[in-house]
Amino acid sequence: MHPFGRHLDAFLRQLRDVRQMSPNTLRAYRSDLSDFLTWLPEHCEAPGRLELRRFLVELEERGLKATTVQRKLAAVRSYHKYLREFEGLAEDPSKLVRGPKLPKRIPKFLSESEVDLLLGLSFEDDFFGRRDHALLEFLYSTGCRVSEAATVRLRDVDLEDGSVLVHGKGKKQRICLLGNPARQALEAYLESRRERIAAQKTGDPGVLFLNRFAKPLSSRWMFETVLQHARRAGIPTRLTPHGLRHSFATHMLQRGADLRTLQEMLGHENLVTTEIYTHVSMRQLREVYDKAHPHGAEHE
């Protein structure tokens, strides 16, 4: 490894122990920084602004997406920040380097009528049908990430109060709310859940959503479940659990929720992340205006 990377393991331990980053995130940091350290010329003891810019140019020449290049730059910046704070690095040239401009991405979401189609489907009155219905209602009602839904514990769900304690990124906790349809679907599912555990005789794993073997339902299977029922509902969009999260956020904003409240509900660390939904609402507002206003685009 290049000498500049001699503190890499200490940096990764700090991310794990202090910032509570997940194993997947740590692997991504190690991979991105190893890529950078492998690229560094042997005679370059500490990279400056010129070396960093050359590295980014070479990444783009490899055909990497702008988002990937920005991610690698973010890892390099984090490492430089660590070196300045804990290892006595004198200067941080990464602050002077800009990555490629990212295209604005508007998240895909369902209209309220499409959500009604999805959640209004008929489901079999058995363990699988009740579970799938409860899962869809839960995702849309809470706006949870699929990784959060996969790890929700039964003890953290309060149907009487209509709330659930969710463990989000960085082991941060927040309270999500359950609407009446979600509470009713969960109540029906929990009865089947108890029967499934008793039939399997494996003990209760404590996680809310279970598979046929009374084991925790995986995130991958949640993706498949959402996609399967979206197709049944005739929804043309390739719907994912994150699409239901986007739909939750967009509909909340359209119905008057303020950004700060939405930020808390989604578990966003930065308000800037939440602000993307204002672009969604403005786009829809423009479409309505153009159709309805006498001087709108359709009336020109």
Features:
single chain, 300 residues, mainly alpha, DNA polymerase, domain 1, hpI Integrase, Chain A, 2 domains, 13 helices, 3 strands, 56% helix, 4% strand
Rg calc: 24 Å
Q: Per DSSP, what share of the residues sits in E-state strands of 2 or more residues?
A: under 5%
| Highest-level CATH class of the largest domain | Mainly Alpha
Low-confidence stretches: none
Total strands? 3
* Mean pLDDT across all amino acids: 86
Strand order of the largest sheet: 1-2-3
Structural class of the helix and strand makeup?
Answer: mainly alpha
Question: Could you give a quick summary of the protein structure above?
Answer:
This protein has 300 residues and is mainly alpha-helical.
Give a verbal description of the structure.
By secondary structure, the protein is mostly helical. The protein has 2 domains: 3-96, Tyrosine recombinase, N-terminal domain (DNA polymerase, domain 1, Orthogonal Bundle); 112-289, Intergrase catalytic core (hpI Integrase, Chain A, Orthogonal Bundle). The chain has 13 helices and 3 strands. The longest helix has 21 residues, at 66-86. The chain is globular, with a radius of gyration of 24 Å.
